[in-house]
């Protein structure tokens, strides 16, 4: 399973992707590797926050895979039984914090055990090299109980932050002037709110952000200036379906666009039944979002 650092990773290709799906694939492949090598006494655990299963970023997934594969390969080289847990969480200062736990109780019967400190130092140096273009760093730490953790961080770049590969400058988009418009954005993931707000800043629209459906309904009740709603699907307190139904009962003319990580006919049918005016799947494309909103604004003005 050992992977030498491929130099082509230095060039890197950043794209929008779901962190959870990337780690789930790593877990599947490593689990197959354990079975192939008859390491049946090693338990591999993927532990991620449920609220972040649909968390998207714009970075290099190949580098993420390489780092996790190298850390897991390193641990499994020196161990024959025990449990290995890995996952991620939102860290401080808008960084993603990844970890791989190697419990102190893990048996280390490998003949390579004497070379482990040297191999670990080489591994961290290698990971730092991979992270050099992603705004992160790697380190190890040991808890008071003796458990060791390999950790690394990445800067959070919201999805949709695509850049021209030649100039490294954002590709130009023609934005309408919505300085007289107020758009309500509803999503329980902070980085998704930041992403949508970022998409809308060039339009000069006033943006109101809330993190659940009930707050969205209350905002529509209290603020008559709201002209448009961008609604996420799965949220705490009140989900997007019910929030849309209540909003449409209050203001039937108010456009509501559904935003979901679950594209498909079944999902779009639910939104139609809830009264939604349009449906957009994640990861979002800024041009498609702006065109959808502009089209619905024109539709409402024609009816007025």
Give a verbal description of the structure.
This protein has 304 residues and is α/β, with parallel strands linked by helices. The chain has 2 domains: 7-155, Histidine kinase-like ATPase, C-terminal domain (Heat Shock Protein 90); 182-303, Response regulator (Rossmann fold), CATH 3.40.50. Helices cover 37% and strands 22% of the residues. The strands form 3 sheets. A 5-stranded mixed sheet has the order 2-4-5-7-6. The protein has a 5-stranded parallel sheet with strand order 9-8-10-11-12, with helices on both faces. Helix 6 (240-250) links the parallel strand 10 (228-232) and strand 11. The longest helix is centred in the N-terminal third of the chain and has 18 residues, at 19-36. Mean pLDDT is 80; it is low at 1-8 and 162-172.
Task: Describe this protein with a few key phrases.
304 residues; Heat Shock Protein 90; 2 domains; five-stranded mixed β-sheet; five-stranded parallel β-sheet; 12 strands
Concise structural overview:
The protein is built from 8 helices and 12 strands. It has 304 residues and is of the alpha/beta class. The longest helix is centred in the first third of the chain and has 18 residues, at 19-36.
Write the layout of secondary structure elements.
Elements: E1 15-18, H1 19-36, E2 42-47, E3 56-59, H2 61-77, E4 82-90, E5 95-102, H3 116-131, E6 138-142, E7 148-155, E8 182-186, H4 190-200, E9 206-210, H5 213-222, E10 228-232, H6 240-250, E11 256-260, H7 265-274, E12 278-281, H8 286-303
Parallel strand pairs: 2-4, 8-9, 8-10, 10-11, 11-12
Antiparallel strand pairs: 1-3, 4-5, 5-7, 6-7
């Amino acid at each position: 399973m050992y992977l030498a650092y491929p130099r082509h990773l230095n060039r890197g290709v950043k794209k929008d992707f779901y962190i959870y799906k990337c780690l789930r694939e790593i877990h599947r492949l490593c689990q197959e590797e354990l079975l192939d090598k008859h390491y049946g006494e090693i338990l591999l655990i993927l532990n991620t926050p449920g609220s972040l299963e649909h968390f998207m970023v714009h970075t290099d997934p190949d580098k993420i895979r390489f780092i996790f594969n190298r850390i897991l390969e390193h641990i499994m080289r020196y161990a024959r039984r025990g449990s290995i847990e890995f996952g991620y969480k939102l860290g401080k200062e808008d960084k993603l914090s990844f970890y791989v736990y190697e419990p102190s109780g893990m048996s280390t019967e490998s003949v390579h055990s004497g070379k482990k400190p040297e191999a670990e130092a080489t591994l961290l140096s290698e990971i730092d090299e991979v992270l050099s273009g992603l705004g992160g760093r790697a380190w190890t730490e040991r808890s008071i109980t003796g458990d060791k953790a390999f950790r690394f961080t990445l800067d959070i770049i919201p999805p949709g932050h695509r850049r021209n590969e030649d100039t490294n400058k954002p590709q130009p988009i023609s934005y309408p002037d919505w300085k007289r418009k107020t758009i309500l954005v509803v999503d329980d993931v902070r980085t998704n709110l930041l992403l949508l707000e970022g998409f809308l800043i060039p339009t000069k629209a006033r943006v109101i952000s809330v993190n659940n459906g009930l707050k969205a309904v209350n905002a529509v009740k209290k603020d008559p200036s709201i002209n448009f709603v961008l609604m996420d699907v799965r949220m705490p307190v009140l989900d997007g379906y019910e929030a849309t139904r209540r909003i449409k009962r209050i203001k039937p003319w108010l456009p509501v666009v559904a935003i979901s990580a679950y594209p498909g006919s079944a999902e779009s049918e639910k939104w139609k039944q809830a009264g939604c005016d349009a449906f957009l799947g994640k990861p979002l494309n800024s041009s498609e979002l702006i065109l959808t909103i502009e089209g619905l604004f024109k539709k409402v003005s024609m009816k007025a």
